[in-house]
Amino acid sequence: MELNAQQLAASKFKTGIASVLAVPGSGKTLTMTNRIANLIQEYQVPPESILALTFTRNAAKTMQNKLKTILHDELPRVTLSTIHAWAMWLLKEEGKTFDLLHGKEQLRFIRAIMRKHRVVMSPAMILREINLAKNNLILPEEMKELYPGDFTMNKIITVYETYEKEKQKKFLMDFNDLLWEACKLLQSHPEIREKYQSMFQHVLVDEYQVRRLVV
Fold first, then answer.
1. Helix (H) or strand (E) holding 54
2. Any bridge partners for residue 54, and if so which?
3. Which of 151, 154, 159, 150 has the alpha carbon at shortest distance from 115?
4. Domain count of the chain?
């Protein structure tokens, strides 16, 4: 697949902030792959200063396979990762101790809290609401202010509160915690933020989403 004029312009972009808006399957990953290659081969950017983030493992693997044929031995010097894996690496690198809670274990964890509070609902639905709140960086106490008098939402908030407390006691994080805690770490510690800004001068994100809570 060859790049069209707009994709080529994005792949040749060197410094500053660029955002590519495109529909699924239109070649965003290919464009980003070519931009990484151009930064290294055309603009002599050190591979170690490039951080390339994707949302899924499949996208990361696709990008890695495409770059392998272009960069050869230089590819391992580029940091190419999913956003969650990189956030986990960052937190571990900065001395955070935790285990990851996900999949069936996470649902079992939620069910135990629901039994404790005698909440009868779908665990998957409660988890969706918790994830939505956390994606918008909304804490349980802030969520209470958004849903005063809403019986169902207040039951969910009760589970959310206990969920957060129990995870902290057991040194657990879920996938949303990885992003949230990495964000807080970089925002609240200028010296840590500057360290990684110095390490990675070129940050490329394959896909991102902006979510707003509608109430």
1. strand 50-54
2. 82
3. 159
4. 2
Whether 200 and 51 have beta carbons less than 8 Å apart is answered as yes
The C-alpha torsion from 29 through 131 and 173 to 194, rounded to 10°, is 50
Domain that holds residue 12: 5-95+190-205
How far is it, in rounded angstroms, from Cα 103 to Cα 91?
21
Q: Are residues 111 and 42 in the same domain?
A: no
Q: Tens digit of pLDDT for each residue in 132-187?
A: 999 888 999 999 999 999 999 999 999 999 999 999 999 999 999 999 999 999 99
Scanning the structure block, which residue is given the tokens 């510690």? 189
pTM value is 0.86
Structure confidence at residue 208 (pLDDT): 67
Domain contains 132 = yes
Q: Which residues contact 162 (CB under 8 A, 6 or more apart)?
A: 113, 116, 117
The answer to whether 35 and 13 have CB atoms below 8 angstroms apart is yes
Per residue in 21-30, pLDDT (tens digit) is 888 888 888 8
